[in-house]
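Second opinion, please. Pick holes in both lines of this record:
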Amino acid sequence: MRSFFARRILHRFSQRYGYNTGYLEMLLKESPAAFFKFAPLMKASRHREVIPIEASFAAGITGAKAEDCGPCAQLVVDMALEAGVPKDQIEAVVRRDVRAMNDDVVLAFRFADAVVRRSADEDEHREAIRARWGQKGVVDLSFALQMGRMFPMMKAALGYAKECRRISVGGKEIDVIKQAA
């Protein structure tokens, strides 16, 4: 019964976002136990206590882009738009254009980018986050970043990440330069 409802939820999610949930459907079919352990991460990906929504999505998009060049990154962009994040801020993150980001988005993007790249200035960016939003801000952004990475990594590991495409922000295609982690 639980699997029946999960399939319906996946179908609605796929329809809502135009996102292929085939890897999750396979996971549900082949290992329901694994699927029901993985599924709560969807809720965890929305964790946010103190940071602004646009900062959370800046980290999530940065994480998704680090692991994906297509549908998963697009999904995070679409969710950001749905959550009301301004298009110009989403586009700035996708393009890595720090000059076009507001102060909160710059902080989140620089932190997420430093963590993804394992940059020497990672601690400096973490401290900037801590100074602005406290330790809860570091937790919030860490969740957003890592959950943004988790789904594309699972999709790739299961052999379903076969498509690369441009990211579209509100119907406008953005040329993306993918940076290696």
About this structure: The chain has nine helices and two strands.
